[in-house]
Amino acid sequence: MMKLEQGEQIVREVSKHWFVLFSKVIFLAVFVIIPPILYILLRLGGIDFSTILEGNTGFLFAGATALWFLIIWINFFVIWTNYHLDVLILTTDKVIDVNQHALFYRDISTCRLDRIQDVTVEVRGIIPSLLDFGRITIQTAGEEDNFIINGMPKPYDVKEAILAQAHQAIESWRPNTEPAQLQNAGT
Amino acid sequence: MPDLKTIIEKSFGVSSLHVAMPPAVLWGGFGVVLFIYLVMSATFLYHWGTYSYHPVKVKVVGGIYFIGSFVLIAVMLISIFGYLASLS
After folding, report:
1. Residue B28 in contact with partner chain A when CB distance is under 8 A
2. For the whole prediction, is pTM greater than 0.80?
């Protein structure tokens, strides 16, 4: 869990679009159909392991298939965990981008709301347009790198939320800074 | 077309090939799988508990994960017992 500053609250937490997860796990479907295809091919080819192995080889095939599916099962949850922990968090003070690349490889980028200059949305392609997801680029002031977050669902809503929160944050800080600035200007 | 037994017998130069899978190999393999599974499960639990913002969602998904893997491990166990029983 992310540690927030005192008085800071999470406004919105956005996970990536479900299609991002789908596009990563769809290849597992290929591996799922390998055991039945192998079984059919062995039968068609007249290859019978019971001629060389003692005992009921059907049990061995069932056990090997279960092992194969267990490997796929664990792989699916590795992908799901990386997807689930890859989030964009909008707080009252900043935007936090958590990039979960692998189980033990994550990086966290933070940008204060007053440093945001512009937010750009890019929805490219048929599927992103139909399913309403895309890339959000947050341009920051100074030498900080821009935030680029791919696969964001409802990117225009997220953009509006970020800009509204940035505006609100700037407005709430202004009364505290103005008297000090005036005092400095007078001296 | 020669069958699998004939092909292997000719390749290895043996006259009568009919072997049993040793129980030690089966149980050893199962032990390795179980160890890797436990390590992966511990890793998942750590990540879900430490970094997730949705404890309820993680509990549901964790339940699905453990039920599914329990079924698959049970099938593996039954297969080993079934095969070893078929040898005797």
Report:
1. no
2. yes
